[in-house]
Amino acid sequence: MGEKMSESKPVQARFRVELRDMLQAERAHYRQSKFVFADRAFAIAAFLYGLFVVASIGFYSWGLLMFPLSVLLWIDFFSLRQLRVRFMYARNPKHRQECTMTFSEEDIRVQSETIDSIVRWSYFERVIEAEEVFLLYYGKGMYTLLPKRGLQSTYDLGQFRGLLTRRLGSAASVGVAGPTAA
Protein backbone atom coordinates (compact mmCIF):
# COMPACT_ATOMS: atom_id res chain seq x y z
CA MET A 1 0.00 0.00 0.00
CA GLY A 2 2.89 2.38 0.75
CA GLU A 3 4.30 1.73 -2.72
CA LYS A 4 1.02 2.63 -4.38
CA MET A 5 0.94 6.02 -2.65
CA SER A 6 4.55 6.77 -3.57
CA GLU A 7 3.79 5.99 -7.25
CA SER A 8 1.08 8.64 -7.34
CA LYS A 9 2.40 11.74 -9.06
CA PRO A 10 1.19 15.20 -8.09
CA VAL A 11 -1.64 16.60 -10.17
CA GLN A 12 -1.21 20.17 -11.36
CA ALA A 13 -3.90 22.63 -12.39
CA ARG A 14 -3.12 25.96 -14.02
CA PHE A 15 -5.93 28.44 -14.63
CA ARG A 16 -7.37 31.92 -14.41
CA VAL A 17 -10.76 32.11 -12.73
CA GLU A 18 -13.36 33.37 -15.18
CA LEU A 19 -16.75 34.85 -14.42
CA ARG A 20 -18.49 31.74 -15.77
CA ASP A 21 -16.53 29.62 -13.25
CA MET A 22 -17.66 31.75 -10.36
CA LEU A 23 -21.27 31.76 -11.54
CA GLN A 24 -21.33 27.99 -11.93
CA ALA A 25 -19.71 27.53 -8.54
CA GLU A 26 -22.35 29.73 -6.92
CA ARG A 27 -25.15 27.78 -8.62
CA ALA A 28 -23.64 24.44 -7.52
CA HIS A 29 -23.28 25.76 -3.97
CA TYR A 30 -26.88 27.00 -3.99
CA ARG A 31 -28.18 23.62 -5.21
CA GLN A 32 -26.58 21.98 -2.17
CA SER A 33 -28.21 24.44 0.25
CA LYS A 34 -31.56 24.32 2.01
CA PHE A 35 -32.67 27.55 0.36
CA VAL A 36 -33.36 25.85 -2.95
CA PHE A 37 -36.31 24.02 -1.39
CA ALA A 38 -37.71 27.18 0.19
CA ASP A 39 -37.44 29.05 -3.10
CA ARG A 40 -39.22 26.27 -4.99
CA ALA A 41 -41.97 26.14 -2.35
CA PHE A 42 -42.46 29.89 -2.69
CA ALA A 43 -42.75 29.54 -6.48
CA ILE A 44 -45.39 26.81 -6.10
CA ALA A 45 -47.26 28.98 -3.59
CA ALA A 46 -47.22 31.92 -6.03
CA PHE A 47 -48.57 29.69 -8.80
CA LEU A 48 -51.36 28.33 -6.58
CA TYR A 49 -52.26 31.83 -5.40
CA GLY A 50 -52.47 32.90 -9.06
CA LEU A 51 -54.84 30.01 -9.76
CA PHE A 52 -56.99 30.98 -6.79
CA VAL A 53 -57.19 34.66 -7.79
CA VAL A 54 -58.00 33.86 -11.43
CA ALA A 55 -60.63 31.31 -10.37
CA SER A 56 -62.17 33.82 -7.93
CA ILE A 57 -62.02 37.06 -9.91
CA GLY A 58 -61.42 36.00 -13.51
CA PHE A 59 -58.79 36.40 -16.18
CA TYR A 60 -58.82 40.19 -16.02
CA SER A 61 -57.10 40.34 -12.66
CA TRP A 62 -53.64 40.74 -11.17
CA GLY A 63 -53.69 37.02 -10.50
CA LEU A 64 -52.49 36.43 -14.06
CA LEU A 65 -49.17 38.01 -13.12
CA MET A 66 -48.58 35.21 -10.65
CA PHE A 67 -48.11 32.62 -13.42
CA PRO A 68 -45.05 34.18 -15.08
CA LEU A 69 -43.82 35.31 -11.65
CA SER A 70 -43.92 31.73 -10.36
CA VAL A 71 -41.90 30.53 -13.37
CA LEU A 72 -39.31 33.26 -12.81
CA LEU A 73 -39.11 32.32 -9.13
CA TRP A 74 -38.72 28.64 -10.04
CA ILE A 75 -35.72 29.30 -12.30
CA ASP A 76 -34.18 31.64 -9.71
CA PHE A 77 -34.42 34.65 -12.04
CA PHE A 78 -34.56 37.21 -9.23
CA SER A 79 -31.45 35.97 -7.46
CA LEU A 80 -29.17 38.63 -6.06
CA ARG A 81 -26.41 36.02 -5.67
CA GLN A 82 -25.60 36.13 -9.38
CA LEU A 83 -25.39 39.91 -9.30
CA ARG A 84 -23.16 39.75 -6.22
CA VAL A 85 -20.83 37.27 -7.94
CA ARG A 86 -20.54 39.51 -11.01
CA PHE A 87 -19.79 42.49 -8.78
CA MET A 88 -17.13 40.59 -6.80
CA TYR A 89 -15.46 39.34 -9.98
CA ALA A 90 -15.35 42.79 -11.56
CA ARG A 91 -13.95 44.46 -8.44
CA ASN A 92 -11.23 41.94 -7.58
CA PRO A 93 -8.32 41.80 -10.05
CA LYS A 94 -6.81 38.85 -8.16
CA HIS A 95 -9.47 36.64 -9.77
CA ARG A 96 -7.81 37.25 -13.11
CA GLN A 97 -4.30 36.24 -12.00
CA GLU A 98 -3.01 32.93 -13.25
CA CYS A 99 -3.05 30.38 -10.45
CA THR A 100 -1.24 27.07 -10.21
CA MET A 101 -2.41 24.44 -7.75
CA THR A 102 -0.34 21.30 -7.25
CA PHE A 103 -2.15 18.46 -5.49
CA SER A 104 -0.04 15.71 -3.93
CA GLU A 105 -0.82 12.99 -1.40
CA GLU A 106 0.72 15.17 1.33
CA ASP A 107 -0.60 18.66 0.63
CA ILE A 108 -1.71 21.29 -1.87
CA ARG A 109 0.57 24.05 -3.12
CA VAL A 110 -1.11 27.24 -4.34
CA GLN A 111 0.90 29.74 -6.38
CA SER A 112 0.04 32.99 -8.15
CA GLU A 113 1.59 36.44 -8.57
CA THR A 114 0.65 37.30 -4.98
CA ILE A 115 0.67 33.99 -3.11
CA ASP A 116 2.85 30.95 -2.58
CA SER A 117 1.28 28.75 0.03
CA ILE A 118 1.09 25.14 1.17
CA VAL A 119 -2.27 23.90 2.46
CA ARG A 120 -2.81 20.62 4.28
CA TRP A 121 -5.58 18.34 3.09
CA SER A 122 -7.11 18.46 6.59
CA TYR A 123 -8.04 22.09 5.86
CA PHE A 124 -10.79 20.86 3.51
CA GLU A 125 -13.96 19.14 4.71
CA ARG A 126 -15.72 18.07 1.52
CA VAL A 127 -15.96 18.65 -2.21
CA ILE A 128 -18.70 19.24 -4.75
CA GLU A 129 -18.12 18.52 -8.41
CA ALA A 130 -20.16 20.52 -10.90
CA GLU A 131 -20.11 20.32 -14.68
CA GLU A 132 -17.02 22.51 -15.12
CA VAL A 133 -15.70 23.20 -11.60
CA PHE A 134 -14.78 21.62 -8.28
CA LEU A 135 -15.66 23.35 -5.01
CA LEU A 136 -13.36 22.35 -2.15
CA TYR A 137 -15.13 23.37 1.05
CA TYR A 138 -13.16 24.53 4.08
CA GLY A 139 -16.08 25.87 6.11
CA LYS A 140 -19.80 26.46 5.98
CA GLY A 141 -20.43 28.20 2.67
CA MET A 142 -16.69 28.79 2.09
CA TYR A 143 -14.91 27.04 -0.73
CA THR A 144 -11.91 27.12 -3.02
CA LEU A 145 -12.81 27.06 -6.69
CA LEU A 146 -10.96 24.84 -9.17
CA PRO A 147 -12.05 25.00 -12.83
CA LYS A 148 -11.74 21.59 -14.49
CA ARG A 149 -10.18 23.17 -17.58
CA GLY A 150 -7.11 23.88 -15.42
CA LEU A 151 -6.31 20.18 -15.36
CA GLN A 152 -4.19 19.24 -18.36
CA SER A 153 -5.96 16.04 -19.47
CA THR A 154 -8.76 13.60 -18.74
CA TYR A 155 -6.09 11.41 -17.16
CA ASP A 156 -5.24 14.24 -14.72
CA LEU A 157 -8.96 14.68 -14.03
CA GLY A 158 -9.24 11.00 -13.09
CA GLN A 159 -6.09 11.19 -10.97
CA PHE A 160 -7.47 14.26 -9.20
CA ARG A 161 -10.79 12.54 -8.45
CA GLY A 162 -8.87 9.59 -7.01
CA LEU A 163 -6.77 11.91 -4.90
CA LEU A 164 -9.92 13.62 -3.59
CA THR A 165 -11.38 10.24 -2.62
CA ARG A 166 -8.19 9.13 -0.87
CA ARG A 167 -7.63 12.39 0.99
CA LEU A 168 -11.21 13.43 1.79
CA GLY A 169 -12.72 9.95 2.00
CA SER A 170 -16.48 9.73 1.88
CA ALA A 171 -16.68 13.53 1.95
CA ALA A 172 -15.48 13.45 -1.65
CA SER A 173 -18.59 11.56 -2.68
CA VAL A 174 -20.90 14.54 -2.22
CA GLY A 175 -21.22 14.20 -5.95
CA VAL A 176 -21.91 16.14 -9.05
CA ALA A 177 -24.24 19.06 -8.67
CA GLY A 178 -27.13 18.98 -11.14
CA PRO A 179 -27.05 20.66 -14.54
CA THR A 180 -26.74 24.39 -14.40
CA ALA A 181 -29.25 26.83 -15.82
CA ALA A 182 -27.95 30.12 -17.11
Show the helix and strand layout.
Elements: H1 2-7, E1 11-15, H2 19-31, H3 35-57, H4 66-74, H5 80-91, E2 99-103, E3 107-111, E4 116-120, E5 126-129, E6 133-139, E7 142-147, H6 154-168
Helix pairs in contact: 2-5, 3-4
Output the keywords:
182 residues, alpha+beta, 4-stranded antiparallel beta sheet, 3-stranded antiparallel beta sheet, 6 helices, 7 strands, elongated, disordered C terminus
Task: Explain this structure.
By secondary structure, the chain is α+β, with helices and mostly antiparallel strands. It has one domain (2-174). 43% of the residues lie in helices and 20% in strands. It has helices at 2-7, 19-31, 35-57, 66-74, 80-91, 154-168; strands at 11-15, 99-103, 107-111, 116-120, 126-129, 133-139, 142-147. The chain is elongated.
Widest beta sheet: strand line-up: 1-2-3-4
Question: Which radius of gyration do the C-alpha atoms yield?
Answer: 21 Å
As for the number of domains, it is: 1
Question: What is the CA–CA distance across the termini?
Answer: 45 Å
Shape: elongated
Listing every helix as H and every strand as E from the N terminus to the C terminus, the arrangement reads HEHHHHEEEEEEH
Query: How much helicity do the residues have?
Result: 40-55%
Q: Which structural class is indicated by helix and strand composition?
A: alpha+beta
Total number of strands: 7
Strand coverage percent? 15-25%
In oligomeric terms, what are we looking at?
Answer: single chain
Average of per-residue pLDDT values: 82
Spans of at least 5 consecutive residues with low confidence: 1-6, 178-182
In DSSP terms (H or I, runs of 4 or more residues), the helix count works out at 6
Task: Give a short account of the largest sheet.
Answer: 4 strands, antiparallel
